[in-house]
Specification:
With 297 residues, the chain is α/β, with parallel strands linked by helices. It has 2 domains: 6-125 and 272-291, Rossmann fold (3-Layer(aba) Sandwich); 127-269, Rossmann fold. It has helices at 42-58, 87-98, 127-137, 152-162, 206-217, 236-242, 271-283, and strands at residues 6-9, 15-18, 27-31, 63-68, 102-106, 121-124, 142-146, 165-172, 182-187, 194-202, 222-230, 247-251, 265-268. A 7-stranded mixed β-sheet has the order 9-8-7-10-11-12-13, sandwiched between helices. It has a 4-stranded parallel β-sheet with strand order 3-4-5-6, sandwiched between helices. Strands 1-2 form a two-stranded antiparallel ribbon. α1 (42-58) packs parallel to α2.
Length: 297
C-alpha cells in the first residue's frame, strides 16, 4: 500500500512530515534517493528521509526499511587524507539512530559500505537491466572497459555475461584538483573495437570523458558509456555533449531534469528490481536470488 505523507515546511525552512494514515505494527519502507535537485539539496533529501523514518518509528511501525536507490556521500567511505571525515559511515549511523532496521540501496560506490550499517543491507545491482539493454541494442563484438582499477570487478562481470573482452584505464587525479581525472594508459586491446565503459555513476563526467578520449586515441572505433547513477552535476552535460561518446545509458535512480536531457542519453528503469526486492523483504524471502546470488560486490 502506497502511503501518503503530509510534508510541509515551516517558514524558517524546517521540515514537518506526518503520515496520513496509521503505520502502527506495519512494515514501512521509506524511499528517497539522495540526489540534489533545484528544489532540494542532497542534504535536504537525506534529512527528509531521516525525519520520515523517525516519524514512523514514533508511530510504532513494526519494521522500518530505508530504501536509498542512490546512497549519498558514498564516495566518502575512507579517510583519503588526514583530518577528513568518513561521511558514508556517519550517514549509516544516522539512519540507524532514526529507527531504520534495514537498508536497501543500488550499486553502492563501494560494497564495503554495507558494513557501516548496523543491520541487514540489501545491495541491489542494476546490472541485469543494463546487460539486457546491451544484448538487445548491440550486435557488435564489444570490449567492456573499466574507467579505472576500482571498477574492474564490475567490468569483468559484464564481460563474462556478454562473452566479451575486457580492458581498463589507468587513471590518476592531479593532487589538489577536484573533479579532474587524467587517463594515462589503456590495458587491453581496443583498436578497431566497439568499447563500452561501465561505472557506478557519472558525476562531473571527468572520468568517463577522459576514458573515452583515451580509448579513441588508442584506436577504438566507437565508445558507449553505461552507469547506474546519472548524477550529472556541474559541467557534466557540457562535457558529455562534446565527448567522443556515441551513447550514454543510465538508470532512473537519480531524476534527470529536462535541462539535462540530451539526445545521446538514454534512461532505463530499475523499478522492477526495487519492487522485487521490497516484495522479498516484506515476504521474508531471499533478495539475492533475484540476481542469482550476483548482487554482492
Amino acid at each position: 500500500e502506497l502511503g501518503h505523507p503530509n510534508l510541509t515546511d515551516f517558514a524558517n525552512g524546517e521540515m514537518r512530515p506526518r503520515f496520513g494514515e496509521s503505520v502502527r505494527g506495519g512494515d514501512v519502507f521509506v524511499m528517497q534517493t539522495h540526489a540534489g535537485t533545484p528544489e532540494m539539496s542532497i542534504n535536504d533529501a537525506i534529512m527528509e528521509q531521516l525525519i520520515m523514518i523517525d516519524a514512523a518509528h514514533r508511530a510504532s511501525a513494526k519494521r522500518i526499511t530505508a530504501v536509498c536507490p542512490f546512497y549519498g556521500y558514498a564516495r566518502q567511505d575512507r579517510k583519503a587524507e588526514g583530518r577528513e571525515p568518513i561521511t558514508a559511515k556517519l550517514v549509516a549511523d544516522l539512519f540507524k539512530a532514526a529507527g531504520a532496521k534495514r537498508m536497501i540501496s543500488v550499486d553502492l560506490h563501494s560494497g564495503q559500505i554495507q558494513g557501516f550499517f548496523d543491520g541487514p543491507v540489501d545491495h541491489l545491482t542494476a546490472a541485469p537491466v543494463l546487460l539486457d539493454y546491451l544484448r538487445t541494442n548491440t550486435d557488435l563484438d564489444p570490449v567492456i572497459v573499466s574507467p579505472d582499477a576500482g571498477r574492474i570487478k564490475v567490468a569483468e562481470r559484464f564481460a563474462q555475461h556478454l562473452d566479451a573482452d575486457l580492458a581498463f584505464i589507468y587513471k590518476t587525479r592531479p593532487k589538489g584538483m577536484a573533479n579532474v581525472a587524467v587517463a594515462r594508459e589503456v590495458i587491453g586491446e581496443v583498436e578497431g573495437r566497439h568499447c563500452i565503459i561501465v561505472d557506478d555513476r557519472i558525476d562531473t563526467a571527468s572520468t568517463i570523458v577522459a576514458a573515452a578520449e583515451c580509448l579513441i586515441e588508442h584506436g577504438a572505433s566507437d565508445v558507449w558509456a553505461m552507469a547506474t547513477h546519472g548524477v550529472l552535476s556541474g559541467p557534466a552535460i557540457d562535457r558529455l555533449k562534446n565527448a567522443p561518446i556515441g551513447r550514454i545509458v543510465i538508470t532512473n535512480t537519480v531524476p534527470l531534469p529536462s535541462e539535462k536531457q540530451i539526445d545521446k542519453i538514454e534512461v532505463l528503469s530499475i523499478a522492477r528490481i526495487i519492487a522485487d526486492a521490497l516484495d522479498a523483504v516484506f515476504e521474508d524471502t531471499s533478495v539475492s536470488e533475484i540476481f542469482g546470488g550476483e548482487n554482492q560486490n
